UniProtKB/TrEMBL annotation:
Top-level taxon in the UniProt lineage: Bacteria
Name of this chain's protein: Uncharacterized membrane protein
Domain Alpha/beta-hydrolase N-terminal: 57-270
Domain Alpha/beta-hydrolase catalytic: 288-574
Length: 590
């Protein structure tokens, strides 16, 4: 009896052979606790990370090399890890904690972790192999060079580094929140939820201030300064024009050294009257090219004054067609499009453009979209205002051309389709960004049964959309003048990129794919957004007729919009031959 009571009073002995794993952080001691906490993985998050990484390896619009795929894979893996961690926490808190069998005893707990880790690695490697095959499939559709499987495996290593960096930054921010909450609890005796909420708010505000006030603005300023320096340079081979029909010539109100890199490139390029005569076999005029750079005058209004004086000086209002070209960010005008217009009109044309930014299109798209629309509106309105002063029976046809961000700049001058057709005599817009309001409204209201990649609006009576020259062939249906035409490829990421891709599957991804888009491309939340974002960086780096590279299709588009009198299909092919020869011998376009 005494022995029994003694045993009852003895403290419970520690369990030497517990079936649970001992937390390694406790073994290593407090010195290594932070390091272990930093490296420790959530296995639900790991499974989600592998899933999102595998999704990111599925095909997109354009072929991607291992570098871009590694970046996109890492971003998506980090997103998956975050969602998986949150999901695992919620399941454990509201479902598993009340189960008698949870947490799992050993060896089941370790077995599950090993299974998750091993499966994640194996699935990721298998998907990398499949992804290399998909990339070769896309490359074949575009007549481009494909990747190798062995080279593509590097994607996995880069994705791991990118994902680890993002998770590490998140954990640092989380630890800062905990540190702030701990200080508030000790100093002000606040409750844990209140202190944590305050910590989150403080870290969020400071992060936003850092990103917006320092990183973004500082980066924007640095990039602007960098490209402003580039603006002072001149392309190799570009020489000051001597013909009075060009801005930058000795007779010009816009001096050569004020036109900027793209402006000097624009006025120095192109076919001259003798080249056009050799192509057409008929007497040709010397084409007029008018341009104003950012340094041509101090303000936008003053630059427009110079543009108007240049149009008057060169005799632009006596030509058969006057084409206003709102530019992309740096002031770039597509040389192929400019030369195509001049070939179609045998030099009896005047092209006018103006620079509004130092920044390339993709940066201007993110930071200067309103500025682009304002610049395009000002250019078109000022030229049209002066054009209206000419006698109606003798003034040239007023038309608009725009490409990429230039289409957004051009759309900024009009309120709707009716406004476009009432103010100008024809419009050709190439590769419009998905955020273009007019384009978006037309596509959204397309005829029932037509697809988003090949929309039909009002049976093609007022405006049309085309992917290639076959779409522009006469189909027997009426197309009223003035004509408005959008050229858009099914694989152009500029046309299809939108933040909505994060959460919503677009119509174009459940419709039959275009001729050069693989049917293997599927929509996944978050993942597709980052895939198409990566495609933007290589939008024009693919062969003609794909992506954002429209090649000589602009010639067919311009013929369809301008409807030159007496023009034949043979004329188009003759002009295409001349245009292609010029492209092949005149060097890079950008």
């Amino acid at each position: 009896m005494t022995e029994s009571r003694t045993q009852e009073r003895l403290p419970e002995q520690p369990r030497e052979h517990s079936p649970r794993l001992i937390d390694p952080a406790r073994l290593h001691g407090p010195v290594l606790d932070p390091a272990w906490d930093f490296l420790r993985l959530d296995f639900t998050g790991l499974a989600f990370a592998a899933l999102f990484f595998s999704w990111s390896l599925t095909p997109s619009l354009l072929p991607r090399d291992w570098l871009f795929q590694g970046l996109i894979g890492g971003i998506n893996a980090a997103i998956g890890y975050a969602l998986g961690t949150a999901t695992g926490w919620a399941v454990r808190r509201w479902f598993l904690r009340k189960r008698s069998w949870w947490p799992l005893p050993e060896p089941w707990a370790s077995a599950v972790k090993v299974f998750v880790a091993t499966t994640s690695i194996v699935v990721s490697v298998v998907m990398l192999v499949y992804s290399a095959g998909w990339q070769r499939e896309i490359a074949r559709l575009m007549d481009a060079e494909g990747t190798t499987t062995s080279g593509y495996i590097r994607t996995g290593v880069l994705s791991l580094l990118v994902a680890a960096t993002i998770v590490a930054v998140w954990r640092v921010l989380r630890d800062i929140v905990r540190w702030i909450a701990g200080r508030l609890i000790r100093m002000l005796r606040l409750s844990i939820p209140v202190a944590t909420t305050i910590g989150v708010i403080v870290v969020t505000v400071l992060s936003l201030l850092l990103i917006d006030g320092v990183l973004l603005r500082g980066s924007y300023s640095a990039i602007n300064n960098m490209f402003s320096l580039e603006n002072t340079t001149t392309r190799d081979g570009a020489e000051q024009p001597t013909a009075p029909e060009r801005s930058g010539s000795p007779d010009s109100h816009a001096p050569w050294d004020t036109l900027g890199f793209q402006g000097r490139d624009f006025v120095s390029r192109g076919l001259h009257a003798e080249d056009l005569e050799a192509s057409s076999g008929r007497p040709a005029s010397e084409p007029i090219r008018v341009y104003a750079g950012l340094e041509t005058a101090d303000t936008p209004d003053e630059r427009m004054d110079v543009v108007i004086r240049e149009l008057e000086r060169t005799g632009a209002f006596s030509r058969s067609v006057l084409v206003v070209i709102p530019t992309t960010g740096t002031g770039w005008v597509n040389p192929t499009a400019a030369e195509a217009i001049e070939l179609v009109h045998n030099g009896d044309s005047a092209l006018v453009a103006a620079q509004y930014s130092y920044l390339p299109s993709w940066i201007s798209f993110l930071a200067d979209r309103d500025k682009a629309a304002e610049a395009g509106k000002l250019l078109i309105e000022r030229v049209r205002e002066r054009w209206l002063q000419e006698p109606a029976e003798t003034r040239p046809r007023l038309m608009v051309y725009g490409e990429s961000l230039g289409t957004q700049a051009g759309e900024g001058a009009f309120t709707d389709l009716g406004d476009v057709r009432s103010k100008v005599d024809g419009v050709l817009w190439v590769g419009p960004p998905n955020s273009n309001p007019l384009w978006g409204s037309l596509v959204a209201r397309r005829d029932p049964g037509s697809t988003e990649i090949a929309p039909r609006y009002a049976d093609g009576l007022l405006v049309r959309f085309a992917d290639d020259s076959t779409d522009l062939a006469a189909d027997g249906t009426e197309w009223l003048s003035p004509r408005v035409l959008y050229l858009q490829h099914a694989t152009d990421p500029v046309v299809w990129w939108s933040p909505d891709l994060m959460f919503t599957r677009p119509d174009w991804l459940h419709e039959p794919p275009g001729p050069d888009r693989t049917p293997s491309m599927k929509w996944f939340p978050f993942v597709t957004f980052w895939q198409v974002s990566a495609d933007l960086t290589n939008a024009a780096g693919v062969p003609d007729g794909h992506g954002h590279n429209y090649g000589t299709l602009v010639l067919d588009g311009w013929v369809a919009v301008a409807q030159p009198e007496g023009w034949t299909a043979e004329d188009t092919e003759r002009a295409r031959t001349t245009l292609q020869r010029y492209i092949d011998t005149s060097g890079p376009e950008k």
